[in-house]
Amino acid sequence: MLPAGWDEASPGLYARRSTAEDLTAIVQWALPGVTTDQLAAALLPSFGLETLPEAVGEYESALVTWDLYTFPVEASEPPLTVDLALAETDPATFVVLLQAGPVEHERLHEAVFLPALDALDVLRWGPDLDSAFAADADAAVPTLALEVVETRPHDPAAFTQGLLWHDGRVYESTGQYGASTLREVDAETGAVLRSAPVPEAYFAEGLERVGERLLQLTWKEQVAFVYDLATFEPVGEFSYQGEGWGLCYDGAYLYMSNGSPIITIRDPETFEIAYRGRVTYQGTPVQRLNELECVGDYIYANVWTTNSIVQIDKRDGRVVAVIDASGLLTPDEAEAADVLNGIAYDAEAETFLITGKHWPKLFEVRFVARDG
């Protein structure tokens, strides 16, 4: 139960205190490896406090139990009052500061968050930390090239939206209204071994495997279909807000893109939001993040309408490398095809499989240093 005066703003994400004025500033963090005691110690000077006062209440969501506080911010002029929700869970510490009233977001950011970052001496993934990454703005981000291991056939009729590798097979989600499918594909020949149609009212998007289930996003329909891996029979659905683009799974969480710089991290069993993070390249948000692949500490993402794949450190959202995937198709093939989209990882071979919408080929590649 929420304490008196609070209402739920987004299931599983945060709560806010109701006021007569509009909520004008929200800042959310996820800080892996930082305890709530460390975080509180870093934040308290901005409130003119040495220790945390008694919480005004507690809120339990599906994944996180928040302690709720209300603080004046003495370091700000004119003074601010913020609502703070604080929680600790594995693998991240969550903090949300909510400012009720007509106060500029930048003032809250400068008065509270940047001093806390300095005190913690960390750079962590959060949707409003662009200033905190300024020190890295001039750091070189390498551009990698592709080493083609093998070129294989791919169905040029497939409007590839999601691609994954499992047990020697390629699984693929294809899009477009009236033509969307879920497929199992022979990795060597490109032959479609199984195909299940998606209802005509849905435009299929990203695809991922969680255990013996396959999860398939839809573009604007706000539904994720759940299938039995062995039979392709539908076994459930998840609902979500906004668009669905790419999806990947790291064994603990699902990571979902929607064409913006924001990656949404979700519980694989309930699909509820655990937290969100913004992806940045030298401090600048990266737009049009599309198909995703989780590999170790990294997320690889196609950037829609480009021939680039970005390697994202999932611990802080920074792009640590850009892969140049241009030049794979001949000029005639490229003219008949659509954009690059589709990335899967073969852990045994330590290679990636990449293709695109209406591409006639699927490429097994490694990402290597670029000559020169």
Tally of individual helices: 3
Residue share in β-strands: over 45%
Return Rg in Å: 22 Å
**CATH class membership of the largest domain:** Mainly Beta
Overview of the molecule:
The protein has 372 residues and is mainly β. It folds into two domains: 6-122, Alpha-D-Glucose-1,6-Bisphosphate, Chain A, domain 4; 143-369, YVTN repeat-like/Quinoprotein amine dehydrogenase (Methylamine Dehydrogenase, Chain H). Helix content is 8%, strand content 48%. It contains three helices and 29 strands. It has helices spanning 36-43, 105-120, 331-336; strands at 6-10, 14-17, 23-32, 57-60, 65-73, 80-88, 92-100, 143-153, 160-166, 169-174, 181-186, 192-197, 204-210, 213-218, 223-228, 234-239, 247-249, 254-257, 262-266, 273-278, 280-281, 284-285, 289-295, 298-303, 308-313, 319-324, 340-346, 351-356, 361-369. The strands form seven sheets. It has an eight-stranded mixed β-sheet, with no helix packed on it. The protein has a five-stranded antiparallel β-sheet with strand order 3-7-6-5-4, with helices on one face. It has a four-stranded antiparallel β-sheet with strand order 9-10-11-12, with no helix packed on it. A hairpin with a 6-residue loop joins strand 19 and strand 20. Helix 1 packs across helix 2. The longest helix is centred in the N-terminal third of the chain and has 16 residues, at 105-120. The model is unreliable at 7-26 and 122-138 (pLDDT under 50).
